[in-house]
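Okay, any thoughts on this one?
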Amino acid sequence: MTETPVKKILRIDSSARHDDSITRQLGDEVIQRLGQANPGAEVVVRELYETVGFLDEHWVQANLTDPAERDPSQHEALTASDKLVRELDSADVILLTVPVYNFSIPAVLKAWIDMICRARMTFQYTENGPQGMLKDRPVYLVMASGGIPFGSAVDFASGYLHHIFGFIGISDLRPVYAEQTNADASASKAAALAMLEKWLP
């Protein structure tokens, strides 16, 4: 895709760990390189463990109700979700840092996905099937796994993320993977940085 000027970078962190998080460390490197390439770009940080909740029955019913027919409590129920969608849609570049937990993504990241996958807002149903409504843009997909190789039969994380972003219209995912970090964390991070060189030399 054609590169466009980067004014806003959305960083989404989903690791439960902070100082010892490999995905956060690699994410810092991505932000540094993006900043060097795009001086003055705003960086918005979305810390999922601190700001994103889970769906409940009231949220689901509100989401299924036609916007013109929602009552005040239903509008209120969707306020946080609406904000997350606007935040995502306004970003020129997205950085997503994702540890693999039990072969898949963290629950809090799935909660964020449930909040931003909204019919008539980020995707729509057509006679030809679902269609993403967001414009394409780069997504730096920083992932780390303790034991599994990415792309293997037991990797239920990376393929899902590629699919779900494509579902809402975003296909320009740029993987930066540190795999099997339990065996050799330094070598895994070095391999991930080598992948990053392809995108941000």
